[in-house]
Amino acid sequence: MYYAHFGLKQAPFKITPNTEFFFSGGNRGAVLDALIYAVNSGEGIIKVVGEVGSGKTMLCRMLQTLLPEKVESVYLANPSVAPEDVLHAIAFELQLKLPADADRLQVLHVLQNYLLERHAAGKQVVIFVEEAQGMPLATLEEIRLLSNLETKNDKLLQIVLFGQPELDVNLNETQIRQLRERITHSFNLGPLQEKEIGEYLIFRLRAAGYFGPHLFSNAAIRLVSKAAQGLVRRVNILADKSLLAAFSDNVYQVTPKHVRAAINDSEFGAEHSKRQATRPMYWAIAATLIAGLGLGYLFNQWSAQTASLASESKVPAPATNKTAVTQAEVKGAAVSNTANTSMHATPAALPAPAPDDIFEQRFAATQNWLKTKPVSTISIQLMGGADQDQLKQQLEALATQLEVDNLYVFRTQAKGKHIATILYGSYADRDDAIHALQKLPASLRSNRPQLRTVGGILEEMKLLQ
Q: Does residue 109 sit in helix, strand or coil?
């Protein structure tokens, strides 16, 4: 992969939580310190809320790591556990011995005795509940009842809920209000800001063994921030793909070009691209409509002036029907002009090629390839452009160097122009695609080919629909 290229000892942006890569910026360190204090105080129920990919699981793992030895933790990661099963799940995690076919009261009795023993030994038990927003309200209520287990002075069990913003919605339900009232500490993991994302990227790179200057340019950081919307998991995905793109280019700094390639290759990239593309589209449509209205107004003014001059010079004015037809034609032309100017308008048809045209043969084969392959399938983008005749010649030349059946062609649109792109190969694994890319003739590698997924190509082709 790209580790040796950038002087890395390990993967810097894996999405699997690794406490060695915990980033204390973006208020994460402050929240962690507050959680440690809240757990040690042993009072009430604690709640941590954050969007998908904001770093809740990493925070939970860090909390488990930093709590003192006297704290014994139970980790519940299954949000769909039924209320009648949650006590058994906790007992199982604590490795408690239960009678065969023990009912709820028996499990609760065994659990309470265990907690009393732990408390007498100066120990503390904490339950970490992941994905709490997905738990049935009845299960949350069953967990809340466990908070009633206490001695004269202390709670026997501490509960920490980790969930998405939907957890707050659930807690506002009337039937769960008793749980809401027991929450004594509430924390929120907000999105990282652009400056924090820059700090996060270099922190992870340093943790992975990198010692040089920042690998991401300021413009690249800005683009990552916008596309990831401050979510740590998305930052990791984009950073990893961007480094891979820079490695493919044989360069040592990530630029916006590499980040854009990463965005196009990501599942959530379509959302960002759609937001970016929609803004100029609205302005183009508005400008065209204004131009059409202006044309109609000028024509009406000219028509009225012509009629007035004709009347004064006793020259018969144009027939009413003909005038109406002319206005309709002009207005129709304005509407037609408006439609043709829109980004989503159907462009003029490309010239029909000869049946034996290799370009169209591979284009037809590509349509079938795109329909039958998984969206994660990877291909190598060799070249592209608006001049189809030139690309046809290049495709014929490629057919003498590479297997014709592995050459693919698809069409998209940019700024009102048809763009054709030539791909090579079909790979289920990214490593295989990179290996094939490195084996391409030097003349093709000098064009800096890029890896593309079927999913990204299909999103790009939607502009023609």
A: helix
* Amino acid (1-letter code) at residue 365: A
pLDDT reported for residue 302: 54
d(CA 231, CA 323): 61
The two beta strands, 157-163 and 407-414, are: unpaired
Summarised one tens digit per residue, pLDDT across range 333-362 is 433 443 343 333 334 444 444 445 788 889
Nearest-angstrom CA–CA distance, 279 and 250: 34
Per-residue model confidence as pLDDT tens digits over 150-206: 888 888 888 999 999 999 988 888 888 888 888 989 999 999 999 999 999 999 999
Give the separation between CA 298 and CA 327, rounded to whole angstroms: 11
The Cα 243–Cα 370 span in angstroms is 27
CA dist 268 and 249 (Å) reads: 24
Residues 6+ apart with CB under 8 A from 88: 98, 102, 107
Main-chain phi, psi angles of 122, to 5 degrees: 80, 20
Residue 422 has pLDDT above 60, yes or no: yes
**Which of the 8 DSSP states describes residue 45?**
E
Q: Contact 272/226 with Cβ under 8 angstroms?
A: yes
Residue type, 398: L
CA angle 320-324-330, nearest 5°? 145
Note the Cα 309 to chain centre separation in Å: 65
Report H helices in 249-387.
256-264, 269-312, 320-341, 358-372
Interior/surface letters 257-282, b for 16+ CB within 10 angstroms, e for the rest = bbbbbbbbbbebbbebbeeeeeeeee
